Amino acid sequence: MEVLYAADGLTAVEVRERMPDPPGYSAVRALLRILEDKGHVRHEERGPRYVYSPVVSRVKARRSALKALVHTFFDGSPEQAVAALIDESRSKLGPAELSRLAELIAQAQKEGR
Fold first, then answer.
1. Domains, in order of start, for the chain
2. What angle do the packed helices 58-73 and 78-89 form, to 10 degrees?
3. Up-side HSE of residue 57: CA atoms within 13 Å toward CB?
4. pLDDT tens-digit map of 24-38
5. Coil, helix or strand for 41?
6. What is the pTM of this model?
7. Of the candidates 67, 70, 68, 50, the residue with the CA atom closest to the CA atom of residue 4
8. Which terminus of the chain, N or C, has fewer Cβ atoms within 10 Å?
9. pLDDT digits (tens, 9 = 90+) for 35-51
10. How many Å apart are CA 65 and CA 86, to the nearest integer?
11. Host H or E run for residue 14
């Protein structure tokens, strides 16, 4: 999906060319077909080629993927997911980022009451 978001419509060949360590062409086609069946991607015919583009906005796709990730790997617990992210990113988080996270938590506490 990231490859498709970065361009304005791509063929399966172009998607494969832009992927790091790409699978075979057939696998890319199969993946695009699955994404299309799930409603994430659409295609239009341009001559003999199918040109694929995202249907779902990046924000919506990000939220959907995050929801699935939290459900699958963190037993549906946002708290466990955030704790894991902070633990993994501890050395990369600067004072400004930590402050912003604290603000978001404070805002969520305020709105939750």
1. 2-54 (1.10.10.10), 62-112 (no CATH)
2. 100
3. 3
4. 999 999 999 999 999
5. strand
6. 0.66
7. 50
8. C
9. 999 999 999 999 999 99
10. 19
11. helix 12-18
